[in-house]
Each structure stands twice: as C-alpha cells, then as structure tokens.
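Sorry, explain these tokens?

***
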Amino acid sequence: MFSKTRIRSFTKNSFTDTNTKTADIMPDGYQETIEKGISAVRFFNRNMSYGKGTKEENIAKLKDEIDKADAIVIGAGAGLSTSAGFIYSGERFEKYFFDFAERFGIRDMYSGGFYPFPDEETQWAWWARHIYYNRYIDAPKRVYEDLLKLVRDKDYFVITTNVDHQFQRAGFDRKRLFYTQGDYGLFQSVNPMIRKTYDNEDWVMKAMEAQGFEKDGQGEFRVPEDGELSMRIPSDLIPRCPDDGSDMTMNLRADNSFVEDEGWHRASAAYSDFLRRHENLHVLYLELGVGANTPVIIKYPFWQMTLANKKAVYACLNYGEAFCPGEIEDRSICIDGDIWEILMKL
C-alpha cells in the first residue's frame, strides 16, 4: 500500500524514539478484529443492501442513535480524510509538487510514493513534503473537529487505517485511538532486530527548510513567491537510525516488516478491551469512508459485531459506497454522500 523503498534515516539527535516491549500479556485487538473480518467474509452472502428510508430519514435516525447509544465505535478510512480536504491529486498536488510533476511525470502523491527516484537526496525531499502536507498541518476542512463535537460526551473509541494523525490534531483522546496501519510522523529502521519507531517532526521541518519552503504568518510552510524550490536535500540530512546507523523507512504497514511498537500494542489492547466491555450493550458501529482496500480491518468486523449483538446498530457514511449486508439491513443506516456535509446536518 505504501512505498517500500529502503531509505536512510536521521542524525542521532533529530528525533525521539519509542521503546518497544513484547506485548505477550496484552490482548491483541488487531488480530481479533482481523479474525472477526475473516469470519464475516465466510458468513455473509452477497445480498448487499443500500439500507432503508430516505437520506433525510437516515440522517435523523443516525442523530437519534448517536444520542441514545451506550457506546460508539468509530471506524475511519481514507474517505474521511478526503472529505476533510486531504486530496492526493489535482490542485493540492500541483501546488506543492509541481516540480516533481514536471521533472518526473508524477501525477499524484500516492503514486509518487512508489517512484524510483534517482538518489536518496531526491527521494527524501519528496517524502519530507508528503509527510508535512499530510501530517503536520490541519486538514483544510473541519471534518474531524465536527465529528468530535458529536461524540465528545459519549463513550467512544476510534479504529482507523488512516495515517495522518488528524484525530489527535482535532482533539480526540489519544487513549481512545488505534492507528492500525502506522503514522506518517514515525520512521522505523530497516534492521528487523530494531523494533522501535522514531518521531520525525524535527527532521521534516529541517528537510522542508532545506528545499526552500518558507513559513507564513501562521507558521505553515508555503512555496516561496518566486517558486524556486530544491528537489533534493543535503546528503547529511539523509536520515539514519540513531541506534545502529542503518537505513530508515516509513512506519507504514506494507508487509511483515512493519514495526508494531509499544504504543501500537497499547492501542491494540485498548481497542480489544473496549469491545469486550461493550459487546452486549447498545453499540453504534459508525463507519466513515472505509473503502475496499482493507475492509477486513473495519467494515467486515463491524458487520460481524452488529450481527452478533441484537442491540447494536451499524451506520455507513460513504460517498458512492454506502451499503450493508442484507442480514443486518433492519439495524443499519446507510447514507451516501460527502461525510462533512452529512456531519454538518447532524
């Protein structure tokens, strides 16, 4: 899903590390949710439904469920961040990656993560921009903040495949968040013996300055007026692991080399515990913008848990992909449309 290019990492003091420990005694919420997803694939037939009622009726029903539910489990996919304005192509891409587009023919941020750049200096210049504009700035639209307003006073938990840190930036309780697929703000060593992650904020800021980006009055990096940017960072800025000097890469799940650090395991255990404590209560499984890339992590488990708990309700908010299995149609709310527009109506 993400670039597997092996890239070297920082200088010794340019970031902090998160020590990892074996989490044998912790419940594994990630593995448990995968097992639920696989179970759902085997159980549900192909009788999919777009739900019952009009869009207006379903919005009213969802508002009522949010008010009355004992607990809300939010499952967030890429569609939520897209609704918030984190779009990987078009105007936003051309604004910050125009030079990469012109020189290498890259047409969007996603495909750029797989491009075979000619050297590490260029490759890390790309990743510094990609990380900064998708992790260290607020989303263009207040989708996450509006979502928080709806659930702030509820007993909630969030599981997400997004890696852009926007739940924390919006003020969600970090103890109620499980980022399953990594974080743009973390690096890991390519040495499989080092099971740590490393905060990259300081490095990203230095790499942005090295390319010629300038900060505006709000402290956000912008393209300078003359449009002159470097597509390379100095060789001494190529990041290296502070523990053994090895190459570094993004902490994004691409294969079994993905580092699940101590913080990841704590979040996984917290998710498992939350589901266990609420499994027989009135739970709203609120799915937001989950597509077909990784349905076994959120979508399919939500279906399975709704089926297993007669008090549970499944809600799916998605643009063009709001549907549910026929087996839970009577306890499902499917709303097709832009997530932010739906949240504002709530």
Q: What stands out?
A: The first strand starts at residue 7 and ends at 8. Residues 1-22 have pLDDT under 50 and may be disordered.
